[in-house]
Amino acid sequence: MLLRSVPRALAGLFVCLTVLLTACSPTHPSASAPTASSARRTATVQESRLPVEARHTLALIDKGGPFPYAQDGVVFGNFERLLPQHARGYYHEYTVRTPGSRDRGARRIVTGQGGEIYYTDDHYHSFKAVLR
Questions:
Q1: pLDDT for 68 beyond 70
Q2: Among 57, 63, 99, 100, which one is most buried in terms of CB atoms within 10 A?
Q3: Is 118 within 8 Å of 128 (Cβ atoms)?
Q4: Catalytic residue among 80, 93, 116, 125
Q5: What is the pTM of this model?
Q6: Half-sphere exposure of 29 (CA within 13 A, CB side)
Q7: Is 93 a catalytic site residue?
Q8: Is 123 an annotated catalytic residue?
């Protein structure tokens, strides 16, 4: 009885594999490049719309410092994976002063080696690409 069911099981497996391979084929419409609605998009903000403290931090970055915090300029690991993936060392972070905060606060500027700039005001939970 077992030997008779093996060909049926193999035929069923073959059909399943054929369906899966056809669905994953590059010519299949559902396997095409992501659409605009499915691709992750980063919000943007004009530099002029950033808080004055963030614009001050950008000016310091442009000048090469000096920076008010020892941690400014350290490598940003992108562990949250919200920014495009690059090799470690590609991104660096800078503190944006938060008025009334006793510590560094939650606001940061993150720069990439390709010239991109990101702003977060919620300690890396979200980012906005800064448009200059």
A1: yes
A2: 57
A3: yes
A4: 93
A5: 0.69
A6: 0
A7: yes
A8: yes
pLDDT given at position 12 = 53
Position 108 scores a pLDDT of 98
pLDDT in tens, 19-36: 444 444 444 444 434 333
User: Is 21 in contact with 31 (CB distance < 8 Å)?
Assistant: no
**What would the pLDDT profile of 79-109 be if each residue is shown by its tens digit?**
999 999 999 999 999 999 999 999 999 999 9
Question: Which of 126, 100, 118, 113 shows the shortest CA–CA distance to 54?
Answer: 118
Catalytic residue among 28, 86, 123, 125: 123
